[in-house]
Write a structure and sequence with these properties.
It is built from twelve helices and twelve strands. It is of the alpha+beta class and 364 residues long. Strand 8 and strand 9 form a beta hairpin. Helix 5 packs across helix 8.
């Protein structure tokens, strides 16, 4: 079907570069830079002053956060995008949209909390470390094992086989196959504006990379989103804490006032009593939190982030038109993260888990 709105949209010869320019000018949501992730489609407002990043599954456009634009244009751009999507016979759901869009659409859309993100003022990070003995102990463990962290240039990070080796090892040890959309693991080819912090360990006469951390800018808030922190199997305890510590101090020194460690799915922190999921979804999320640990350690991730004493937990909502959040909308969200059928992703995860358990039994 021809999109009748396409004639009104500006001609964009390089969508990624045009989207990047808008993100660096107006990006406010914590996930704004992920609009530029591999595989994300870009829609531009007819005025050329806004971009929406999204992926499509089951005739549903799942938006990365919210439209990227000036704050006074947010509601109008969201409406224009929804109208253009409807003309293309597709639904829209905004995922992790942020407080500004939540306030604007709360009266006309269905909001459902799917987790929360912990946030910090990095200027106050040294005080947190000073007053939390368990955090200092983790940092000391890593340092005593010869681990130290430095920030690498984008060119060095992009060209490093050591970082890619750590990433491959980290992905191979996870219960789920690699996810995409806003959790895209292949970021090392796209670190132009990101910052990469690398943990190395002194091993005799050479340095061995044992982990790294990638942070993306939130330009309109002088903030940063920590997107990933892969670590090698051989990384000493405390390596991830040391990476976070180095990143917080570096970003604070550059004047940052806001850092998020990203969404903790199904988190009980920052839960909203106003926008609770429907009963079927509450049951499903509770079941996932209790039984999906072999595939994704929701509780462990949340506990790690909580242990770093965030200043606040910001709820992350999915926003869909109408007054009901349906199973098909949730399946569409799962589909863009899975990069295809979520049922097939689960089947692959179960098969991988079975293979690992058989190997463990045969090794006994």
């Amino acid at each position: 079907m021809t999109d009748p709105w396409s004639a009104a949209r500006p001609a964009v010869t390089d969508p990624w570069s045009a989207a990047r320019e808008l993100v660096l000018r107006h990006g406010w949501n914590s996930v704004c830079y992920q609009v530029l992730n591999p595989g994300i489609s870009h829609w531009f407002a007819s005025a050329g002053d806004a971009v929406v990043g999204y992926s499509t599954f089951a005739r549903t456009r799942v938006v990365v956060g919210a439209p990227v634009c000036a704050s006074e244009r947010l509601e109008a751009v969201a409406s224009e995008f929804e109208a253009a999507s409807a003309a293309a016979n597709q639904r829209v759901v905004f995922f992790a949209a942020g407080a500004r869009l939540e306030r604007l659409l709360g009266a006309t859309h269905c909001l459902v909390s799917l987790g929360a993100q912990p946030v910090w003022d990095p200027q106050r990070w040294p005080d947190i470390v000073r007053h939390k003995a368990s955090l200092r102990a983790q940092l000391l463990r890593a340092r005593n094992k010869g681990v130290h962290v430095t920030r690498w240039t984008s060119t060095r990070a992009r060209d490093s086989e050591s970082l890619r080796r750590v990433l491959r090892e980290w992905l191979a040890g996870r219960g789920l196959p690699p996810l995409h959309f806003m959790t895209e693991p292949e970021l090392l080819d796209h670190v132009e504006d990101r910052r990469v912090f690398v943990a190395e360990r002194d091993v005799g006469e050479r340095m061995e990379v044992v982990g790294f951390l990638v942070a993306a800018p939130i330009p309109a808030r002088d903030g940063w989103l920590v997107e990933q922190w892969p670590r090698a199997h051989a990384a000493p305890n405390g390596t991830t804490h040391l990476l976070v510590d180095a990143a917080m101090r570096d970003l604070a020194a550059k004047g940052a006032g806001y850092v998020s460690l990203g969404l903790a799915p199904l988190s009980v922190h920052g839960s909203s009593t106003e926008h609770v999921p429907p009963p079927w979804m509450r049951w499903l999320l509770k079941w996932m939190r209790a039984h999906a640990r072999r595939f994704y350690n929701f509780g462990g991730l949340e506990a790690f982030k909580a242990g770093l004493q965030p200043m606040a937990w910001e709820p992350a909502f999915a926003i869909a038109p109408g007054d009901r959040f349906t199973p098909s909308v949730l399946r569409a969200i799962a589909g863009v993260f899975a990069g295809g059928s979520p049922e097939l992703l689960v089947a692959r995860a179960v098969a991988n888990a079975a293979v690992r358990e058989v190997r463990m039994l045969t090794m006994r």
